Amino acid sequence: MVATETTTDAGTTEAGRDFIRDIVQADIDAGRVSEVVTRFPPEPNGYLHIGHAKSICLNFGVAAEFGGRCNLRFDDTNPMKEEQEFIDSIAQDVRWLGFEWGQHQYYASDYFEQLYAWAEHLIRSGKAYVDDSTPDEIRAMRGTLTEPGQESGYRNRSVEQNLDLFRRMRAGEFPNGACVLRAKIDMAAGNINLRDPILYRILHATHPRTGDAWCIYPTYDFAHGQSDAIEGITHSICTLEFEDHRPLYDWFIENLPVPSRPHQYEFARLNIAYTVLSKRVLTTLVRDGRVSGWDDPRMPTIAAQRRRGVPAAALREFVRRVGVAKAYSVVDLAQYEHAVREVLNKTALRRMAVLRPLKLVIENWPDGTTETLDAVNNPEDASAGSRRVTFGREIFVEREDFMENPPRKFFRLSPGREVRLRYAYFVTCREVVKDAAGEVTELRCTYDPATRGGDAPDGRRVQATLHWVSAADALPAEVRLYSTLFARPDPGAGNAGDVMADLNPDSLEVLRDCLIEPALASATVGEAVQFERQGYFCIDPDSAPERLVFNRTVGLRDTWAKLNSAPLPQRGRG
Ligand code: ATP
Ligand code: MG
Fold first, then answer.
1. N or C: which terminus of the chain carries fewer CB neighbours within 10 A?
2. Rounded to whole angstroms, how far apart are CA atoms 203 and 212?
3. How many other CB atoms sit within 10 Å of the CB of residue 304?
């Protein structure tokens, strides 16, 4: 696939619109909605990933485009899995992506008292009951897609009895799992979500926000739609796996005295090849120490991508191009990397760094002297100016830019071959020095003083231009090269869903003996630079002043083009 072909706006219509924006526009045109209110509703049980970025850009984007607002709401209904660290990271990531919610930061836990009152309302109208069945019994009686469920023996308790039991549940009289509150809908419903779903369970657990005030917690299904109604959400946008829950959400709204009626619209999740966008899997990777943390630059989390050097603008542009659709699809990694490269190409300063150094000595260089040469900071941006680089008798080039016995198409350094050193001179390799083991340790070269700046007055040409650093002032650095965390485009597909079996053992390569030009010492953490001929890099927070650590954000060229030219195998969603 050619890089430019990956920029088609899949899923959007000619006008740059998608079906969600069409629905919103129609609601405004018909006067059904005056102010558009959306929300991004993460559960704070992990860090956000690139898939969430799609939902964030959609919800905040729609609100901004139609002059409405978007709330940030934490769906914090499960204290067993939720933590303040996740709440903080989510807020930071959404802000970093470029979106602001002002004072509209909410929590499902803000509504616990109201949700509880509505649960009692359902009990009083005979539409909810306390069930003492064990979780296993409830599961067994739920039925299957082809068989109806069975009614629980506790289903016909009186209103008084249910109210009393539910209040005692709240008061903490029962241990975890002793009983649940269920909606009384229809155990024979074709949609399993309507087979008396659980509304409340007992959890003696401390909640990050409500502490020990509650020992019963609403289920996500019971909290979600009502939270939307409380906040006056006009368009509840979520991913397709909640399509089957919509009838249940509508049932709650119809059977409760809620202040507004939200409508839910579902779109397809973002999937990216070689990547798993699931907090459950990402949590396992972190917990099992397969990565260094949530922000390990190999992780698809927003925090990791930021640390790796991906600009927020590139993430936004990527999800814009992917578009919003209802059909399941897997996006090429090349498409993501293309968006990253495109932004960095415009902004990143060019620098020289040698990742695997090989010493090159210029024998005819005047002893004890150095020269400074002009080097362009960014050919894409004249205002970025230029810098001075030191050149001298001893420099370092990339080990892989030399071959003693080159094949026909290798045009870089080899014995007798002349090449250009970027911004400097033509040099010719005269001799190869090896150690006892036969490994090349040094190249002895000559330079042509007439080629200063990179051109020969006699018009003679060379077929390669190499980057280099000067032994006189190069600084040591560590460089971390990343490849995909998973070894196959569809992790898990070949191992009965076991994604861990598909981890790429070579996803991280650490180079500890790199040499960088001194101008890089003033780069700041996160700032993007291009190492000429190698890719885009940024300084990692692990850096110390005397020992900089760089992450490779993305290579210069599309290494995935070939790999991905075959169609990807399809996978079930979820
Ligand atoms: P995960 O499956 O990774 O645990 P989730 O859907 O459980 O994700 P939530 O915190 O509930 O995570 O997600 C918040 C919002 O982000 C939801 O509206 C959800 O639909 C949306 N979202 C999650 N993953 C994706 C994705 N891959 N693409 C688009 N939207 C997503
Ligand atoms: Mg979820």
1. C
2. 10
3. 25
What is residue 310's predicted lDDT score, i.e. its pLDDT? 98
Active site residues: 43, 269, 279
Q: Whose C-alpha lies nearest to ligand 1, atom 14?
A: 42
Closest atom of ligand 1 to CA, residue 237: 18
Q: Containing H/E element for 124?
A: helix 112-124
Find out whether the beta carbon of 552 lies less than 6 Å from any atom of ligand 1: no
Report how far ligand 1's centroid is from the alpha carbon of 42 (Å). 7
Give the separation between CA 381 and CA 132, rounded to whole angstroms. Answer: 70
Q: What is the dihedral of CA 461, 466, 472, 476, to 10 degrees?
A: 180
In tens, the pLDDT along 159-197 reads 999 999 999 999 999 999 999 999 999 999 999 999 999
pTM across the whole model: 0.92
Determine the length of the chain.
574
- Give the amino acid at 165: L
Centre of ligand 2 to C-alpha 83, Å, is 15
Hunting for tokens 């989510």 — which residue is that? 90
Q: Tens digit of pLDDT for each residue in 69-90?
A: 999 999 999 999 999 999 999 9
Confidence at 390, pLDDT banded by 50, 70, 90: very high
Ligand nearest to the CA of 90: 1
DSSP 324-358: --SS---B-HHHHHHHHHHHHHHHPEEE-EESSEE
Q: Is the CB of 279 under 6 A from ligand 1?
A: yes
* Contact predicate 42/90, CB 8 Å: yes
| Interatomic CA distance for residues 163 and 17, integer angstroms | 49
278 CA distance to ligand 2 middle (Å): 9
How many Å is the maximal CA-CA distance in the chain?
102
C-alpha count within 13 angstroms, C-beta hemisphere, residue 129: 18
Q: pLDDT tens-digit profile of 296-339?
A: 999 999 999 999 999 999 999 999 999 999 999 999 999 999 99
Cβ atoms within 10 A of the Cβ of 379, count? 9
Structure tokens at 311: 């600009």
CA 43 to ligand 2 centroid distance, Å: 6
Closest residue by Cα to residue 348 from 482, 527, 500, 503: 527
> Residue 322 is inside which H or E element, if any?
helix 312-322
pLDDT-based confidence at residue 440 (cuts at 50, 70, 90):
very high
Among the bound ligands, the one closest to the CA of 279: 1
Provide the pLDDT for residue 269: 96
Is residue 280 within 6 Å of ligand 1 at its C-beta?
yes
CA 270 to centroid of ligand 1, rounded, Å? 9
Q: Is the CB of 51 under 6 A from ligand 1?
A: yes
Question: Does 245 sit in the ligand 1 pocket, CB within 6 Å?
Answer: no
Beta strands in 472-544 (DSSP E): 475-482, 508-516, 528-531, 535-539
pLDDT in tens, 544-567: 988 899 999 999 986 544 444 444
